[in-house]
Write a structure and sequence with these properties.
The protein has 6 helices and 9 strands; from the N terminus they run ββαβββαβαβααββα. It has about 190 residues and is an alpha/beta fold. The chain has a single domain, classed as Rossmann fold. The strands form 2 sheets. It has a 7-stranded mixed sheet, with helices on both faces. Strands 4-5 form a two-stranded antiparallel sheet. A hairpin with a 2-residue loop joins β8 and β9.
Amino acid sequence: MGILNSSISGKFRTEYKGCTIAVGVSGDKHSRYALKWALENLVTSTNDVVVKLIHVTQTSPSPSPKDSPGNSRLINDGHAFDPIEEMLLPFRCYCTRKRVPFEVVILKDHDVAKALIDYISRYGIENIILGVSSKIGFSKRLFKTSDISSSVQKLAADFCNVYIINKGKIWAVRAARRQLPALPALPEEFSKM
């Protein structure tokens, strides 16, 4: 399960005056379009929102020696190099430049869509913004496949608005059907962190 294997930077749960906004990020330009759209359209200077940058690292269904934590860092000139941190750097810089507080969430799961859906349900994310490739329409019709953004759009909790962004414009929206329910308190082990 993606949530149990997740590693979350920052606080585990914070109360915000505004709603929670999450942006699914990966190394492609479509994630950058999604973050830019979210900051321009959902975040204003009057609401207290922390944007959650969510990245899902795919793992194999069965653990293998190459998936061990020590093998994810390469040595470059004597310094540890983490490719995930390198990939997230432009997103962090953009949020910092726009003066928007953010948290980085790194989930590990073999199914990216399932990890995102589980995170939305568990942490009460009210808005998730995902980027989509411009080629997805053709390949989806041709091969009858389901991509991550359409899976999240179909299966996300009904209290979450799902925005799918293509080239900086809304490609698809699924509006929430009900308000966010009261979430139970986190286990004591998380509240001490």
